[in-house]
Structure to design on (348 residues):
């Protein structure tokens, strides 16, 4: 009897030792917080900021270019649009800036999907040299603002028409490859 | 005569108990949540970019707002109707001395349909839920794709859930 009890105790001891060592990591779960603020276009990491009153930030925080009396900046007595068969050049209608936290340059691709009556150019307008495009690539260094101007050519278009389109912005890290 | 019987009985009991022990110690992992106490460093995720950091408890936080300790004074957040892709927001690692496993599977998901995840440099694809297999002491960089389409101006709080278990994925 004594021998059997002795064996029991020994085996019980073995049992405890084996089960205690199985308390390894077996599963890990954690929830981590994400805090993102959605801000108006002229406050965010890659700003689109109106420069001329033809551009403004709407209630949804988006940049809008509006040459009509619907523009919030329009006042009685101001011009209500552009005339037919004419060409208008507006420098620095809006700016695109690079406010990324990591201080790296970006290449911004700007595409306009409206008609070719409206084209865009970077920086100053040089008569005879500057050509508007509906597809621009601009390099924006950290902290810099690149000014984008517009050319509106209403040749062949008569009143009371309107020109509508969307500007699409696509930025990638690094300078533009020429 | 008596001694023989006792010894045989003893061996019989030992065999029975040993079989029982095998049953008690399963080959597959037991589901046990490993809770991290304050100050305890065991965690498989770590911040990598300026858009993420460790809060006072040592937990990973992704913060793209003025509240971030890295906010440089400009760039208050993201814009509406836009898509942002950030490579390497945080890193996950299988520190074998902590996990005890040669291979672990890590699953990353979130409670927001606007957040997507991908591993390594962005190659054009992402998913709402991703699973990454990590060998011993291997680490992986996790990037995030944020789509603000359909969201208005304001403050957004979401949660990323990081799960890990021993063994490879799938």
């Amino acid at each position: 009897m004594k021998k059997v009890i002795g064996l029991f105790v020994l085996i019980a001891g073995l049992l405890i030792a084996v089960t205690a060592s199985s308390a390894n990591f077996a599963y890990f779960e954690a929830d981590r917080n994400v805090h993102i603020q959605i801000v108006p276009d002229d406050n965010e990491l890659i700003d689109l900021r109106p420069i001329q009153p033809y551009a403004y930030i709407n209630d949804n925080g988006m940049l809008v270019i509006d040459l009509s009396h619907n523009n919030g900046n329009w006042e009685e007595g101001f011009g209500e649009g552009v005339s037919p068969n004419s060409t208008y050049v507006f420098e620095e209608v809006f700016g695109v800036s690079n406010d990324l936290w990591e201080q790296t340059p970006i290449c911004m691709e700007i595409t306009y999907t409206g008609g070719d009556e409206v084209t865009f150019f970077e920086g100053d307008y040089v008569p005879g040299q500057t050509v508007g495009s509906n597809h621009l690539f601009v390099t924006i260094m950290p902290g810099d603002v690149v000014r984008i101007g517009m050319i509106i050519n209403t040749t062949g278009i008569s009143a009371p028409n309107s020109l509508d389109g969307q500007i699409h912005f696509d930025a990638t890290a690094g300078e533009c490859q020429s | 005569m008596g001694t023989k019987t006792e010894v045989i009985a003893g061996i019989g009991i030992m065999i029975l108990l040993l079989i029982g022990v095998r049953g008690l110690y399963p080959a597959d992992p037991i589901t046990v949540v490993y809770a991290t106490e304050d100050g305890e460093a065991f965690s498989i995720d770590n911040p990598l970019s300026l858009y993420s950091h460790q809060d006072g408890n040592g937990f990973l936080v992704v913060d793209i707002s003025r509240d971030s300790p890295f906010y440089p004074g400009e760039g208050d957040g993201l814009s509406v109707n836009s898509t942002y892709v950030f490579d390497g927001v945080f890193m996950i690692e299988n520190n074998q001395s902590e996990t005890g496993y040669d291979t672990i599977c890590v699953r990353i998901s979130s409670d927001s349909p606007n957040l997507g995840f991908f591993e390594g440099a962005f190659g054009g694809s992402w998913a709402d839920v991703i699973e990454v297999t990590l060998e011993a002491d291997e680490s992986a960089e996790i990037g995030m794709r944020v789509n603000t389409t359909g969201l208005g101006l304001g403050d957004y709080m979401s949660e990323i859930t990081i799960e890990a278990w021993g063994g490879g994925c799938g």
The first strand of chain A starts at residue 27 and ends at 38. The two ends of chain A are 93 Å apart (CA to CA). Chain A has one domain: 48-173. Helices of chain A lie at 2-20.
